[in-house]
Design goal:
This protein is of the alpha+beta class. Helices cover about 50% and strands about 15% of the residues. The chain has 5 helices and 3 strands, in the order ααααββαβ. A hairpin with a 2-residue loop joins β1 and β2. α3 (about 45-65) packs across α5.
Length: about 130
């Protein structure tokens, strides 16, 4: 069954995507889902989640496929990217290559890119 939404449905909706007192940007215009999610995360103060999503989306391109299989972005907090590895040798590798990784992330993400990198060794069974 196809449900058609009308203006009255929108009026009845209790939850608004925009804060009270602000107009919906481009009301009546189509917005991509990515743009809508970005906007919602920013409104909710969740920029770090937005940055992590962007890091994950370009991670293999930034570090290469072999490293991407072993090193996994976990979280971003206050412009610090935390990655997990399953072996201390990979932690050492990332410590040595950390500034290059951050530079490549900056090339991909611009000012959204993390400025610090932390590496945690996490056994595969705990991921």
């Amino acid at each position: 069954m196809i449900r058609r939404w009308s203006e009255s449905d929108r009026v009845r909706n209790r939850y608004k995507a925009t804060p009270l007192g602000e107009q919906e940007p481009g009301a009546g215009q189509a917005v991509s889902i990515g743009t809508a999610v970005d906007s919602l995360l920013r409104q909710r103060g969740m920029e770090d989640a937005l940055v992590l999503g962007r890091v994950v989306s370009c991670w293999e391109e930034v570090v290469g496929p072999e490293v991407a299989r072993q090193v996994h972005p976990q979280l971003v907090r206050d412009r610090e990217l935390v990655v997990s590895v399953d072996h201390p040798a990979w932690a050492t590798e990332l410590d040595l290559a950390g500034s290059a990784v951050l530079e490549r992330l900056f090339e991909q993400l611009g000012n959204l890119a993390p400025t610090r990198l932390s590496v945690r060794v996490v056994p595969p069974s705990r991921r």
